[in-house]
Amino acid sequence: MIQLSFNHLVYLVEAARWTILLSVIAFIGGAMVGLPIALMRVAKSKVLRGLASGYIQLIQGTPLLIVLFLSYFGLGILGYKLDPLVAAGISFTIYAAAFLGEIWRGCIEAVPKTQWEASDCLGLNSFQQYAYVILPQALRIAIPPTVGFMVQIVKNTSLASVIGFVELARAGQIVNNSTFEPFAIFTAVAAIYFVLCYPLSVAARTLERRAHAGR
Amino acid sequence: MPDAKSPTAQSVISVDNVVKEFGPLRVLDGVSLDVTRGQTVAIVGRSGSGKSTLLRCIAGLETVQDGMITVCGHEVGRPGSAARAQLRRDVGMVFQSYNLFPHLNVERNITLALTLVKKQSKDEAKKRAAEVLSMVGLTDKIASYPEQLSGGQQQRVAIARSLALQPQVMLFDEVTSALDPELTAEVLGVMEDLARRGMTMISVTHEMGFARRVADVVVFMHQGKVWETGPTAEVFANPRTAEFKQFVGSEL
């Protein structure tokens, strides 16, 4: 049994960098896939709408844990042995895209229909309507729930520990295995998660207040 | 400038036997209407009489089930009609709820379509914005955002935004219904000015004073039909139908 030391705390903080990295990958990947998903959800074409909503239902109805297992162990069996970071990045992108797509669809639909009509009457085509009138307004609506979802992403990255990705939660387990001080260690882990998430939560609340005040 | 009110008998808007249904509800039941160049038409009637729907059909915002609408030579009201883009160049529409773009300032609200649709340069568009803003008396609000303006000012910006595109026809859908009397007066003032300048316009309105004063033709709608129509003075002096008599009576 090793005595718990300051070095262990340093180890946890260093592991938290991987949590942050995976969160950032999840958010950027999720945004890049999620925006097209959101636009497909509100498209005129039934096929596009159906594809997007099928994707969202499938992913929202599947535990993230299973997506992680599939992309790491599943693809591994099929001969595509991925690095845990890559497998986790892909899984979280798939996951975040479904949720961001659904959140953003709501934001696009929250822009009043009359804005479509007014821009239509001025002769703007669909692309121009989206680019200059609808999306800028949807963006303003989207910021609070999007930041709120980022908190979920940060916390959910702990699931990546199951495929051997050493982020904050996994690092806590490792330290605990050698020191067996679960209460102290996981309190420290929780505190670090809190430090990562709390500013986001505060930002989400502030932005939400501001968005409502602007109405 | 030639006398804009002289009848040239040139039909700019022609609505022929139009039927519009929302599900089982027949909102327009065989409506016909002709508007000649330079004419000011006021459409009046109770809520639910179909007057706003008629205007929205003319604007190409709704498709119709039967009949034909022609505006400035473009057929409208059919789904996917190719004339839509052309129609947009010739017809301006102003809404009850102003519908300015809240994320853009007054100038950009006006220049957006000028640069995107009319492909004007930034400078040209800004010059045009200044012109139309002075027409509605809001030159000093050019840098303001919609939320910083009163309802009346927002509506005048909305009118200016439409005018900037130099439409041949302006459609006004209850544009003063959300305004108090003072603000209503300033918006109606702008519209009267437009009518005097010879703009062809159709106004769905509850402002009987405005209709009497400005409109050349009054159309009274009832139950999805044109119930009574004719030159303004004549129609108000001699209402032929009981419904219009009652309607005019209740407005006093």
Please explain how this structure is put together.
The complex is a heterodimer of chains A (215) and B (252). Chain A has helices at 6-41, 46-60, 64-77, 84-110, 113-121, 126-156, 168-179, 182-213. Chain A is mainly alpha-helical and 215 residues long. Chain A has a single domain (6-213), classed as MetI-like fold (Orthogonal Bundle). In chain A, helix 1 (6-41) runs antiparallel to helix 2 and helix 7 runs antiparallel to helix 8 (182-213). The longest helix of chain A has 36 residues, at 6-41. Mean pLDDT of chain B is 89; it is low at 1-8. In chain B, the strands form two sheets. In chain B, strands 6-7-8-3-9-10 form a six-stranded mixed sheet, sandwiched between helices. A four-stranded antiparallel sheet of chain B has the order 2-1-4-5. Chain B starts with 10 loop residues before the first strand and ends with a helix. Chain B contains nine helices and ten strands. Helices cover 37% and strands 26% of the residues of chain B. With 252 residues, chain B is α/β, with parallel strands linked by helices. Chain B has a domain at 11-96 and 169-251: P-loop containing nucleotide triphosphate hydrolases (Rossmann fold), CATH 3.40.50. Chain A binds chain B through residues 112, 114-115, 117-125, 128, 132-133, 136-137, 140, 214, and chain B through 59, 61, 85, 88-89, 91-93, 95, 97, 99-103, 112-113, 116-117, 147, 158, 161-162, 165.
Topology of this protein?
The complex is a heterodimer of chains A (215) and B (252).
Chain A: H1 6-41, H2 46-60, H3 64-77, H4 84-110, H5 113-121, H6 126-156, H7 168-179, H8 182-213
Helix pairs in contact in A: 1-2, 1-4, 1-7, 1-8, 2-4, 3-4, 4-6, 5-6, 6-8, 7-8
Chain B: E1 11-22, E2 25-36, E3 40-45, H1 51-58, E4 66-71, E5 74-76, H2 84-90, E6 91-94, H3 106-116, H4 122-135, H5 151-163, E7 169-173, H6 181-196, E8 200-204, H7 208-214, E9 217-222, E10 225-231, H8 232-237, H9 242-251
Parallel strand pairs in B: 3-8, 3-9, 6-7, 7-8
Antiparallel strand pairs in B: 1-2, 1-4, 4-5, 9-10
Helix pairs in contact in B: 3-4, 3-5, 4-5, 5-6
